[in-house]
Predict the 3D structure of the following.
Amino acid sequence: MAQVVVPPMTRLRAGVIADGVFKVLLAAASVGGAVPLGHLLGVPAWLMVIAGLALLACGGVEIRYARRRPVRTCVRLMVAYDSGWVLSAVAGFLMARQGSGAGGEVWMGYQTAASVVFAALLVAATATPPSPDARAHDPAHAHDPAH
């Protein structure tokens, strides 16, 4: 039986797309369940909606630019974003455990701000140059002397 070997970069790129899909799903939950989730987290519904919209934009940008930006750039941004996500979740949990009502605001505030920054950095990143194979099949490069 033949085995299909998937290059590591393809797997990483699939991971970037999956991360974007997760953000879109989290956005849908944040917007769709703004009132009950906001109540559970101790945050106003408007913050849930704003965070959801920021997550939706971030996830959409991540999915759209997954093939247009270097995988290394995408992965570095994901690691930075997810590290902050974990730290803000831990900080929020510790605040809630000590009786503070601001834990949910810290976590959702992070979601909002970090999503906007992540998307902006990904859009501003240098584009991945097309591969030689892609250039050969692209009509825009048909008369390119680099062939």
User: Anything to note?
Assistant: Confidence is low (pLDDT under 50) at residues 134-147.
